[in-house]
């Protein structure tokens, strides 16, 4: 049985931890409001631009000299998985869920005989992926100095990815992130961003007018040259915004659970402390009474 001093020390330690988790929960809740607003504001533009690109991919006939970002390389042998995670922990299963989804996709592709590489955004996914795929990480983009996500950060990542694609580094790129739904739910999401995925026939005909004649001004090649890299940057920017909101929501929930668990542990330790103290007092009284009777 633990001594009274040890129990008192454990109670004090758990109370200190509870203060920290409660403070972290409040900070995460404050940051969540801004991050959630940014993620929700970025969705309509990103989704509409992706729909426009998918519509163009189904309508535009481009020759061998056309943009590979739209038509692809003609192969699907090498895949790049862009895995977006955070730089900080204590966020529940937020990072592990994203990494698990990427691992599942990588295993599936490798079973099909494909070559898989990883482009990591954030630090928390590196440990697991480096252990399972030690020679397949081609780059890690450091986001530790980023306080608030900006489009310039996403554009820098997009430029690096496009450069690797144009140099023949891969044939298909998949983006992994956590889509924010609520503070309790963050859904791991996979999205193909290179080449532009072909849309489903039903959705194209109902929303984009697949049979419509498309006319371009100033010109098809000029428009696509500008829009295709922008679309990749926008999709990465959206993923980073969704991740920022998901991270704070997951951290707020995790710290709330940790605070509650600390309170339960304090109650259990307090009961144990009181029982141990009562047992010690009873023992002392018995010893005093026995000594008095012996006299």
From TrEMBL:
One term of GO molecular function: ATP binding
Entry GO CC: plasma membrane; proton-transporting ATP synthase complex; thylakoid
Keywords carried by this UniProt record: ATP synthesis, Cell inner membrane, Cell membrane, CF(1), Hydrogen ion transport, Ion transport, Membrane, Transport
UniProt keyword annotation of Cell membrane present: yes
InterPro entries reported for this sequence: ATP_synth_F1_ATPase_gsu, ATP_synth_F1_gsu, ATP_synth_F1_gsu_CS
Main localization of the protein described in the UniProt heading: membrane
Protein location: Cell membrane; Membrane; Thylakoid
GO annotation (BP), single: proton motive force-driven plasma membrane ATP synthesis
Membrane-protein topology: Peripheral membrane protein
Domain of life from the UniProt record: Bacteria
Gene3D superfamilies in UniProt: 3.40.1380.10, ATP synthase, gamma subunit, helix hairpin domain (1.10.287.80)
Heme is among the record's keywords: no
NCBIfam families from the UniProt entry: ATPsyn_F1gamma, PRK05621.1-4
Quaternary organization: F-type ATPases have 2 components, CF(1) - the catalytic core - and CF(0) - the membrane proton channel. CF(1) has five subunits: alpha(3), beta(3), gamma(1), delta(1), epsilon(1). CF(0) has three main subunits: a, b and c.
Family designation: Belongs to the ATPase gamma chain family.
HAMAP family documented for this protein: ATP_synth_gamma_bact
Alphabetized PANTHER family for the sequence: ATP SYNTHASE GAMMA CHAIN, ATP SYNTHASE SUBUNIT GAMMA, MITOCHONDRIAL
Protein task: Produces ATP from ADP in the presence of a proton gradient across the membrane. The gamma chain is believed to be important in regulating ATPase activity and the flow of protons through the CF(0) complex.
Protein name per the record: ATP synthase gamma chain
The species this protein was found in: Allosphingosinicella flava
Underlying gene: atpG
